[in-house]
Amino acid sequence: MVTLVYCHPVEGSLTSAVRDSAVEALGGTTPHIVDLSDPDRDTAALAMTDADALARSSSLILVYPTWWSGPPAALQNWFDEVWSPSARFDTIQRIVVCTSHGSSKFVNSLEGESGKRTVSRYLRPRCARRCRVEWIALYGLDRCGPDRRARHLERVGRRISALGS
Question: From CA 3, how far away is CA 1, in angstroms rounded?
């Protein structure tokens, strides 16, 4: 099973296209989708459902934009609700992060890449012993054109397709 967590308030955004590309790349595998952008979602009430899905998942895909050097507040809140200090998800073998950054990779490195640190240092140690983290990021989104965005979507599709098999 694959759990896909999506966080972006605007349908039709690049992030929603990344979500769609990831779902399509999974082929016949139907992921458990956690849509943190749903205005009717009660995060606290659904935290147990999400935790149950994660306990049965072999892979976790996070799809979100990087804002102010980190994940959106809704995703950070979900981490706090679902990934409590005692939570462990030993079935998760792989975490794939699909994100975008307005600034360059160099600027993100200077800022400390807090999103990457959160996943590598906070989530991964609570997963299977040999859990791998894969980072698929589009840097410099503010200055890239449609061709580069299309290549990013293709890259997401290629790298996610391995999870569906």
Answer: 7
CATH number 1.20.1250.20 is the correct assignment for the domain at 2-164: no
Q: Model confidence over 54-65: pLDDT tens digits?
A: 999 999 999 999
- Separation CA 158–CA 32 (nearest Å): 20
Helix, strand counts (H, E) of the chain: 6, 5
Helix (H, G, I), strand (E, B) or coil at 5: strand
Count the neighbouring beta carbons within 10 Å of the beta carbon of residue 143.
10
**Statement: the pTM of the whole predicted model exceeds 0.85:** yes
Tens-digit pLDDT profile for residues 76-99: 989 988 998 889 999 999 999 999
* Domain ranges within the chain, ordered by starting residue: 2-164
Q: Please, are residues 138 and 98 in contact by the beta-carbon 8 Å criterion?
A: no
